[in-house]
Structures are given as C-alpha cells and as structure tokens.
What we know:
CATH architecture of the largest domain: Alpha-Beta Complex
Number of helices: 16
Number of strands: 17
Helix content: 25-40%
Shape: globular
Radius of gyration: 24 Å
Amino acid sequence: MNIPNLTKSELHTLLSQRFSTEEKRLSDIPNPALLHNASDAAKKIADAIRANKRITLVGDYDVDGVSSTAIMVDFFRQIPYPLEAIIPNRFRDGYGVSPTVLERVDTDLVITVDNGISAVVAADICKQRGIELIITDHHTPGDILPDATFIVDPKLKECSYPFSEICGAQVAWLLLGLVKKELGLSIDMRQFLDILAIAIIADIMPLIDINRTLVKEGLKLISTTDRPSSVIIRDRLDKSVITSEDIAFQIAPRLNSAGRLEDASIALEFFTAQDNYTANKQYELLTQLNDLRKETEAETTKSAMNSVNEDDLITVVSGEGWHEGVVGIVAARLVDKFGKPAIVLSEENGLAKGSARSIGDVSIYELIKANEFYLSKFGGHKMAAGLGLEVENIVAFREAINETAKSIDPKDFIPKESVSGILDADDIDLELLTLLEGFEPYGEANARPSFLLKDAEVVGIKLMGADKSHSRIEVRQYPHQKKTLEIIAFRTVFEMPEDKKISCSYTVAKNEFNGKISVQLLCNKIY
C-alpha cells in the first residue's frame, strides 16, 4: 500500500474533496411535508389536541429514542398539553411499542418515535381497542407493514424525502414542525437542536448534507443554551469548543447506559430536567451506571472473545447470563478485533436476544433478513441490528448466515477507516489543529483523518490510568530529529518491542488542560 507524505496544504485539499456540494444552511433543510404521510399525521395530532384526546408517546431506550422522546415531551410542555411518555424497559417490555407496553396504556392516540416499523402485532392490538396509531421511525421496513393510522419513515418506498439517512429524533422533530404549523404555535424549532445533534451523533448517522448542518448548529447550541441538560454537559466537559467526538465518547455512552443496565427514564429525566440541580443529579446517576456498564462489558467481551470461531466470515457467539444490555457494545469490540461483522447473543430460559454490528460495506440487516427463518424477531439497518431466536436455533443460524456471506464481495469487508497519509513531526502543531477543526464535525461518512507513523523509534513508555491499562508512548519519527511525539494508546498495555520501533495509525486531537491547549495524538491501531 502506497501511503503518501502529506503537507498541510495537501491535507486541506484532500479533506475538501469529501464534500461535493456547498455546506447547507438550516434554511436548506427540505420541507418536512415531503416526508410521506407527515402532513396527515401532523393534522391527526393537531386534531387530537384540539379535541382534548389522550395522547401517549412510546419511545426507545437508546440515545436516539430517548432524544426523540425528550424533544416531544418538551414540545408538548410548551403548548402546553398533557402527554404520557413511555420508554419501554429493555428487560420487562422488550423493544418498542410491544403488547406488554400497550397493556398499561389507556389512551386515544399512540405516537411512536424511533420504533414501530416492525410492530405488526401492536398495530393490530391498537386497532382492536380503537386506539389510533401514528408510527414515526427511521429503520428499514420489513415485507409486512403494521396496519397503523399513519406511518412516517424516510425508508418507506413511497417516501420522496430528499435525504433519507436521518435518525428517529429527526423524523420526530420534522413532524413536530408540521404540528406547530397546524396549531399556529410560535415555538422555535431551533431550540431542540442541542438534543437533536446528540441523537444524530449517537445513532451514527452520516455527518454529511443536512446532518452536518444540524450537528454543527446543535453543538454550538450546547455551548450557549440554558437548557439544564446542556448546561451540565458543557460544565462536565469543561471545554471551550464541544466536538462531535466529545458527544460520541463522553455523553452518548452515559445516556445509553441507563437503558442498557436499568431504565432509560433516567436519561429522559436528564434531558427534560427543568433545573440544573436535577440535571446534575441525573448526570451523576448516568455516570455511575456507565462505570458499571464498562465493568460488565469488559467481562462479557473477554468471554465472547474466547468463543469466536476465527474461520467464520460472520462472528456469531452466545452465552448464558451475558448481560443483554451490553451485547451491542461487545459486538462492536469483536468487529474491531477480528475485522468482520459480529452478532452477540444473550441466552436466558431457552431464548437468545442480541445485537449485530457490521463493517465496511456489508449490510448486516440484509444478511439477517436472508436467514429470518431461524428468528423470532429482527430489525435494524445496514450497520447495526437487533434480533431474537430460540437457543436451539443458534448453531443452524450461524451456519446459514455464514453460507449467505460467502456470496459477498470480499472487498465489502474492508473497513472504511483508511490512513490519509504520513505527516512530518514538524507539521504536528496548533496550526494543524485549526486546519482539522475547519472540517468538523467528524463522524460517520466524515471520519477524522488518520495518519501513519512508520518504524518510529520508541523513546519511552509510561502506563496510565488507575489500573495502568493505557499507554503513553514517546516516539521519534526520524533518527535525525530532536522533536519527539507522544502517542496515547487507550486500553492498550504497550511493551517495548525488541527493535525499539513502532508503526501505528493515529488521529490528531485537541487537549485542553488548565486553560492550556496542546496537540494530542491518539493511537488507532498498532501494526
């Protein structure tokens, strides 16, 4: 592989080529009425409000689902109009608007956010009970659609919304824009962009087109709004500029940990807190749950790694007692380690529930769909999915999905992350940071550029962290240079190689400490 040496101006040109069109403004966001059924659904919601009907919202327990719910709760609070908001409990209710959830609902209208496209049984129950059902979702529809009053989903075949790669919170936000119009309200929809940006980042939506604009504006809003949750986020991050990676690595895991380990209502109460004291209290709770999640995840990852059959194209592992709240993260860890899609299942009472994560251009959703015969349920999209099956079918399912995977082009398995080039040590400075900041936000479809360090001399190694599980590696790029570089390798205990050399890929990040800004190099992969 021929990796070029890069100057700063060549890097600027390279990054500029990622965006084929001029950056969009908020005013360029396509009209929500272009979402199939959205205008009719908005009218139905407005009519229900005018008629003083009981309205129940059913969300989801991940960050996108909690964010969607929080935006809806805040919007209805400002009308003001009573809204019963339910986020299903992963362990007691399962996913989405399930029969279990409907058992405890007494209402005239159910609205779903970030779920419902596969809720065929729930839609029938609503019909029998005379409950109107509006589904808003962004997941890929199956062959049979629920018999709902209206379905709003950019992935519907009939939908002509110009940009379909949007998350559940965006669908909900766009729909509320139409409800606002129907009711002639003066609610400023831009006030929700802080929560919306968190949802887009956490749900790994491509940070291009309107998503890029919404995330940029949302990150700015987190730094200025007086919404208590955002005030606490900026206080805790304690940075002059909040980036998409701060949200992805610091905030999203905390928000997710509530639904994974206990109940997503903890995260919802954080987002909808009406004073800083309450928001701070919920943030503390989320931090404790996230620490517990890390421990649980580490134990499960260790067990899962030992169960992997390295000859398989698709990793399928399962275990009794594995915490179903962390199987998605464990699947992602297996993808990183083995470079192939992974499905991790938690077994309990003869049933297995789990999560899948993909890599490169492999659609894990299509692979699972091709083998749905073995499953009791499944849903998701190209890069991530959820599924359930009987334990006795796991072996047959594993064999079948690996058989299907044989027809996939091997090139599709190549990870998207690629190294941009080799930087000279003298070019790694604050000016480089400024250049890189100009192309933020980074994330899906706009990855932070990664650089190569080749056969650099290892000058010293320090282990960091409470359990000494991270490494700070000091290197000299070329023998003649005086300047050394420091690379941080998280979750890696790096030992001095015999030849005292290292080759690795890294990204360049900003480090803010005690008001001082410096360049920090973060190791991606050691070769």
